[in-house]
Specification:
Length: about 375
């Protein structure tokens, strides 16, 4: 069994065993966004404090159904959820959101333990792996296009991922969506397994920028906003990617993040699921109306960037990559299924498509 698949299966199996159990406060970092009002509702077993959506000018939010939404703290999925929260797009679409922003090492576990109803930071491969372990998770709407990049120093001679074979490359975990998508794509396009051919070193996404800048690695795998900072502050270039621009075999398509929920929650709450997607539609329209909004407070603090040049690049990338998406057409759903099929055909992470990974909730 491939080392990468083995690591993922161990992780998912642990999730299955500890469903309903508490996690340590160190493992899950759930933060209130600036100006948010803590909910008086039920507190999850992890001890995390949820935040609620804005109070509308009319109507009583306490009469609305509550949906627990989780996202990766400090990333673009945090921005997506926070825009919904700060602008009251949850209330406007008929539900009251409880928002949980979790650390990278705990976000998936938080959702798989059913501490949240909807995850904003899952993907189709993660759902496929979960389903092979008996956790019936499905993705049902997209949020982020795949902006992952392999970054090298601007003056470096590297022009192709193949040229990095045998070199020291930084990443932030074999169980990350970034490393998984790159593993699948490089296997498909170039015929090698990066987990076996690269000399991988691991640290957090922000720290990877310093590794590249200091010459401790030849390349790094990273994503916006960290890749943006690498380009500005570490004189880096995206040698391969962003992956939204990469032509993948079989017309497959990989999102960086999608909304995910358990199958039974979707079956029991179809209208609420549609309300969440409608809230994201509103949030995305608000972002695209003026992309500089996400580099102003409170979103600037969320991004963790204070360099004006980095922030300006992120605002530009909103439309130039583009970063966000809500295209869940039949064609995109087919392309997402093809992505899962491709991973299975390459025996990367999964051996077969378990079915039920990609769903259309209508609306």
């Amino acid at each position: 069994m491939r080392r990468y698949k083995h690591a993922w299966l161990i992780l998912i199996t642990v999730f299955a065993v500890v469903v309903g159990a508490c996690t340590s406060e160190d493992a899950t970092t759930t933060t209130e966004t600036p100006g948010a009002t803590p909910t008086t509702g039920a507190t999850p077993t992890t001890g995390a404090t949820p935040t609620t959506g804005a109070t509308p000018t009319t109507g009583a939010p306490e009469e609305l159904p509550t949906i627990k939404i989780s996202a990766l703290n400090g990333g673009l999925t945090n921005i997506a959820a926070q825009v919904v929260q700060e602008n009251g797009f949850d209330i406007a679409n008929g539900f009251k959101g409880e928002f949980f922003y979790n650390s990278p090492d705990a976000s998936g576990q938080f959702f798989l333990q059913r501490e949240s109803d909807v995850a904003f930071d899952f993907d189709a491969i993660g759902a496929a792996i979960a389903r092979t372990e008996g956790l019936n998770v499905s993705v049902f709407y997209p949020i982020l296009n795949n902006n992952n990049c392999i970054l090298v120093q601007e003056e470096a001679a590297y022009q192709s991922p193949e040229e990095l074979i045998g070199e020291v490359v930084g990443h932030f975990g074999v169980d990350s969506g970034t490393t998984s998508s790159l593993t699948i794509i490089l296997q498909a396009l170039f015929g090698f397994n990066l987990l076996e051919e690269y000399n991988l070193v691991e640290t957090g996404p922000p720290a990877l920028v310093e590794l590249l800048q200091d010459g401790e690695v030849e390349a790094i795998f990273d994503f916006v906003p960290h890749s943006s900072r690498a380009i500005v502050q570490a004189d880096a270039r995206c040698m391969f990617g962003p992956l939204v621009d990469v032509e993948i075999p079989n017309n497959a398509f990989s999102h960086l993040s999608q909304m995910a929920a358990y199958e039974d929650w979707l079956d029991e709450n179809p209208e609420l699921a549609q309300a969440v997607t409608a809230a994201w539609d509103d949030a995305m329209a608000w972002i695209l109306e003026d992309p500089t909004r996400i580099i102003e407070e409170p979103y600037r603090t969320t991004l963790g960037q204070d360099d004006p040049a980095v922030l300006a690049l992120i605002a530009e990338q909103v439309t130039s990559i583009p970063l966000f998406t809500n295209d869940w057409s039949a064609e995109v759903q087919e392309q997402t299924e093809a992505w899962v099929d491709l991973a299975a055909s390459l025996d990367v992470l999964i051996e077969e498509n378990p079915g039920g990974v990609v769903v259309d909730i209508g609306g």
